[in-house]
Amino acid sequence: xxxxxxxxxxxxxxxxxxxxxxxxxxxxxxxxxxxxxxxxxxxxxxxxxxxxxxxxxxxxxxxxxxxxxxxxxxxxxxxxxxxxxxxxxxxxxxxxxxxxxxxxxxxxxxxxxxxxxxxxxxxxxxxxxxxxxxxxxxxxxxxxxxxxxxxxxxxxxxxxxxxxxxxxxxxxxxxxxxxxxxxxxxxxxxxxxxxxxxxxxxxxxxxxxxxxxxxxxxxxxxxxxxxxxxxxxxxxxxxxxxxxxxxxxxxxxxxxxxxxxxxxxxxxxxxxxxxxxxxxxxxxxxxxxxxxxxxxxxxxxxxxxxxxxxxxxxxxxxxxxxxxxxxxxxxxxxxxxxxxx
Length: 341
Ligand SMILES: NC(=O)c1ccc[n+]([C@@H]2O[C@H](COP(=O)([O-])OP(=O)(O)OC[C@H]3O[C@@H](n4cnc5c(N)ncnc54)[C@H](OP(=O)(O)O)[C@@H]3O)[C@@H](O)[C@H]2O)c1
Fold this sequence. Notes:
The protein has about 350 residues and is an alpha/beta fold. It is built from 9 helices and 15 strands.
């Protein structure tokens, strides 16, 4: 009998299949006993859970890069937690790790689900391993540096620019010597882009003058576009593409999931006449480069060259409604749920 016998685990379960944006009523919070570990497994006590726009796609029955989350299972999510018991040779008790541990207080998982160890650092919160030092910062890092490959002086436009991925993408492009133009929803997020994240200019897509404002912010056209929204916002950017422009599609926040995508202007003539390139980005494709990129991002965050924001809510019960808020722009920065600490 181990010291954790009888330990209760609270878990967020996908209980009903949403059509579109998942709401609180699609999840149940349940309790069960923590199971005994099999050889090779770890028991993790989760400290921070990630909330991601991509979760909308994971829970819907639609074509995606992964199969839909089965009903009745724990909501998959990245999390930062501490190893409280180990039957693996790879990670000892006490290690702080980030991995695919799900929306639950405890996770009994194979050691392979650990993505990396989080080194203790007085100045960097462990939750950053879910944001600027995790999948979001890495999507920005590889999306800008490996896919868009801008040259100094290029005009780089970023959508959801005040968000976790977008703010990192803009700052990485700025460090490469680019003019950066952020697109965000509302005056306070535009201010955040300018004051907090150093964009050269920022434009509010809620404003009726958005198309004209964007054109004015890009007097020499658009060389690179880091796209997190798709839809009408993207249509406006596409109309400004320069010769040999590149577009990286990292997210589609403004498109519905499923088949009923709204029609917009066709881009083909613009792509042809500008000899432009459009490429999808999935951060997991760059896994081999993660350790080096995390090191470089950590140095840039520590030295103040990359700023970030977090949007922290408290307790597992805040998880079920947390995805919907992302699609209302309710978050300012990387949305995480604090369980411990
Ligand atoms: N491809 C990859 O490997 C990868 C990895 C990580 C993340 N991503 C993608 O990157 C994007 C940003 O993720 P994040 O975690 O950094 O989230 P985030 O930007 O911090 O939060 C989402 C933001 O999206 C905006 N938004 C929501 N609905 C919208 C709509 N209908 N039209 C326009 N904007 C809308 C809102 O900002 P406003 O208030 O400004 O509207 C909201 O705050 C997401 O699309 C995500 O799926 C992709």
